[in-house]
Amino acid sequence: MKVTAQPSADALLLLLDGELDASSAVLLDTEFNKPDLLDYRKVLVDCAKLSYISSAGLGVFISHLQRLQDNNVKLVFFNMQEKVFNVFEILGLDSLMTIVPTQAEALAA
Amino acid sequence: MKDVLRIECSRRNLQQVRDFVRGFLSRRAVPELLINQVVLAVDEVVANFIIHANGEDERQFIDLEIVVSGRLLSIEIADQGDTIFIPKTHVSPDLPEYIRQGRKGGMGMALVNRLMDRVEFFTRDHHTVCHLSKELV
Q: Is-annotated flag, keyword Transferase (chain B) (predicted)?
């Protein structure tokens, strides 16, 4: 699992590459724990290369969502593969998180 | 047709578990979405055994056996550690509340229960065993 952060003026783009499980979730959690995350208006998560997610990976997003919302930082997922979206859907997380098809829609969200 | 795998109790071995299940199902032309669902269910149970039952003690190990008979897929996950670990599988997580609390865990077994047709935990010779099954349709 590789996490690449690309900051811009008001958004932080996080590119996820690989499989997000109970082992690699720690890496992503470290990224979400960085204090400067709250300086952005949006955190955009590019899931194009995210090929797998387990409950530990979902747990990272769930555990930081409220803190982001409380600080007016919007968390938006895009380019999600069908099999990864299916996992969000099975738990009903697709209705609690913002998931859009493209980066353009993520920027506009 | 049957395949077996033994792993030490380290979360680093979860990738090996997923590759094992994926490989078995890919050779049987199972659709990718269904493969991912079975892989996820097995990953969740094994992660629970590694982390919660064995405290990531790499001296302990877990045995997996995967069998397909007709369209029925059966998977046995046997924890060879000494702690009996029977998780609740029918608890439905209150996700808005989890978000409010900033909670990280508590969804794995709910996922397993939704992904598989049948989920059973039981003890055998003072060890915990999990049986998962699903019709591959």
A: yes
Q: Is A86 in CB contact (< 8 Å) with chain B?
A: yes
Q: Which structural domain range is residue B27 located in?
A: 2-135
Q: In chain A, where are the structural domains located? A: 2-108
Q: Which residues of B touch A90 (CB under 8 A)?
A: 111, 114-115
| Architecture category of domain A2-108 in CATH | 2-Layer Sandwich (3.30)
Sequential DSSP letters for B58-75: TTSEEEEEEEEETTEEEE
Residue A23: pLDDT above 80? yes
Q: How far is A22 from chain B (nearest CA, A)?
A: 7
A68, A5 Cβ separation under 8 angstroms: no
Q: What is the pLDDT of residues B28-63, one digit of tens each?
A: 989 999 999 999 999 999 999 999 999 999 999 999
What local confidence, expressed as pLDDT, does residue A5 receive?
96
User: So what's the ipTM on this one?
Assistant: 0.94
Q: Searching chain B, which residue's CA lies closest to the CA of residue A61?
A: B104
pLDDT tens track for A25-68: 999 999 999 999 999 999 999 999 999 999 999 999 999 999 99
Which of A23, A60, A90 minimises the CB distance to B14?
A23
Total number of domains in chain B: 1
Q: For residue A64, which of B30, B103, B20, B58 has the smallest C-alpha distance? A: B103
The size of chain A, in residues, is 109
Pairing of β B61-69 and β A11-20: unpaired
